[in-house]
């Protein structure tokens, strides 16, 4: 059933914007952008087992890189390359504390880094324009194809998401992916088997951070105006929620978690002022009874279904 469900999902994503208004297409584009960032965090947290509350910082670094370059006439491809490289290097350096601390101590370290980046974005007006933000961020033209229209830019975001997903799928099925999983399950045993836990810890942070930067490069032309408050630690908590709700350590977890985080609050707007409360109650109940997330719940139901069928017969 997995290939069938994957085919149906891709077909729905391709057909969805043709029946939506511009705001609906914007939400789908935002889902694609946040999914890329959540894939990076899932690699760091879900597979390598390293807690990070700094993913919003890398989204911000990517967004400001794209804004500063494209408003000066640089192509978006240069912004992708520079943002990914910059976030990779910074993420590698951020991974060094993970070699000394773990669990909630590491969470506080990465949260402190996220606060530092936010303060830089807000206070260094000579570089980021501070609280005034950067406006007029252009959308790219690719080989004569303009992405100014919401539908065109959505397909551009969807294409980047597809490339990021294929790269992550390949990585997780390579020896690197197996090393990340071993690092999460038991670092001491992984080290005794000859796995360089130090290098793979740094790589988990670096690659996950680079994907956050790629998401930021897409976020800037999507909203066409960025300012520091968009990249507060609250966004890091939201990305963490996406990974956990979808199912940490599962490939399609970020896709489902981002859909819940981005789309569900909009679907609950019929309740007017209660929609955020309903969303919070849903997340609390889900994590209280199914801490493995929605995909973990689906897997549990799938495995228990044959047993219930046999007992009934």
Helix content class: over 70%
Q: Work out the oligomeric state of the chains in this entry.
A: single chain
The average pLDDT score comes to 88
The biggest beta sheet is recorded as: 2 strands, antiparallel
Structure summary:
73% of the residues lie in helices and 3% in strands.
What would you note in describing this structure?
The radius of gyration is 20 Å and the shape is globular. The model has no long low-confidence stretch (mean pLDDT 88). The chain is mainly alpha-helical and 313 residues long. It has helices at residues 2-15, 22-47, 55-70, 76-94, 104-123, 125-128, 150-172, 175-185, 187-192, 197-223, 233-246, 253-267, 275-289, 293-312; strands spanning 134-135, 141-142, 145-146, 225-226. It starts with a helix and ends with a helix. The strands form 2 sheets. The chain has a two-stranded antiparallel sheet with strand order 1-4. It has a two-stranded antiparallel ribbon with strand order 2-3. α2 crosses α11 (233-246), α3 packs antiparallel against α4 and α3 runs parallel beside α5 (104-123). The chain has a domain at 23-232.
